[in-house]
Design a protein that fits this description.
311 residues; alpha+beta; 3 domains; 5-stranded antiparallel β-sheet; 32% strand
Length: 311
């Protein structure tokens, strides 16, 4: 019994973990945080063995709550769940490969959250004793709103470029459209000369091109619309417009985002909507999660809790 007590603690002290910043997810879906099992700097040649038990203690809200609160029983039911991971000592001993533990994360409300502590435990080798500790990896996550289709307002933003103002581009590419032919003027680049016409009838003409311009739109909701209904409807519209690769902007109350397109623009819009509160009256800049240093956390350097026998 005494030897097992020391072996359990000695094995657990060789565990070193590093957290990977979690990706954003929608509140109606489950996210996850990745924990990498890395070699301990004090015992790089020996790895922790056994099965790890990981359990969330809590999830702390960084901003004030503005959505419908779930009951304490609902949250406690989820956070009492424990997730088990079998450690692979062969991967841990190899510095080039690291075992990744995907810990599920469920937050039923939109907004910016600071992830709380995890309880990590192991009862190797015989299961008579269990070593455990509470670790805080100092991670934040933005939870997007649940997308729900709704009556949004779509306003087209007129382009200021007119066909008559088409300029002759010196480097036409596949992203540009052929516009017209005109008489060649001395000094113009030869790559704009239509050699086909020169060879056919001897007339020197040059090509004019225009860039393909896509229309931009502004997605909005009436200012008197319910906040959660508007956020969910705009979230659904953003996902649809991004999948169609269309340019769009977002405007709602104090939120004003210029038209753009692409995945990065989508995440900026979804993050801004997720963190929108009734107190947002001024022009809103897209929030960003403060980056944290992903330093390895070694259990050997932490003060251990009292080793308790299993009952």
């Amino acid at each position: 019994m005494l030897l097992t007590l020391f072996y359990t603690h000695q094995n657990f002290a060789r565990l070193a973990l590093k957290a990977i910043p979690p990706d954003s997810f929608h509140c109606n879906l489950d996210g996850e945080i990745h924990l990498q099992v890395i070699p301990n700097k004090n015992t790089p040649s020996r790895a922790c063995n056994g099965v790890l038990s990981v359990k969330w203690l809590n999830v702390v809200r960084a901003a004030d709550t503005h959505t419908k609160k779930t009951t304490d029983s609902d949250e406690s039911t989820y956070f009492e769940r424990s997730f088990s991971f079998a450690l692979n000592k062969d991967l841990v001993s190899n510095k080039e490969q690291k075992q990744s533990l995907k810990v599920p994360l469920q937050i039923p409300k939109r907004g910016r959250f600071t992830l709380g502590r995890m309880t990590i435990a192991c009862d190797f080798p015989l299961g008579l004793y269990k070593c455990w500790t509470h670790l805080d990896f100092d991670q934040q996550v933005i939870v997007y709103a649940k997308p729900e289709e709704g009556p949004i307002t779509i306003d087209k933003i007129a382009s200021t470029d007119e066909p008559e103002s088409v300029s002759e581009l010196s480097d036409p590419t596949s992203n540009e459209d052929f516009y017209a032919l005109k008489d060649y003027e001395v000094g113009q680049p030869l790559n704009r000369v239509s050699w086909k016409h020169v060879a056919k009838n001897g007339n020197w003409v040059s090509k004019s091109f225009t860039s393909l311009q896509s229309d931009s739109y502004l997605l909005s909701m009436p200012s008197n619309a319910d906040l959660e209904t508007a956020v969910s409807a705009l979230t659904h519209a953003i996902l649809c417009w991004t999948s169609a690769d269309a340019g769009f902007g977002v405007q709602y109350k104090g939120l004003n985002i210029a038209p753009n397109h692409g995945t990065k623009h989508m995440h900026e819009c979804l993050s801004a909507l997720a963190c929108l509160t009734p107190a947002n009256n001024a022009n809103h800049n897209t929030p960003s999660v403060n980056s944290t240093t992903n330093r390895p956390i070694s259990l050997a350097s932490k003060r251990k809790k009292t080793v308790r026998p299993l009952t």
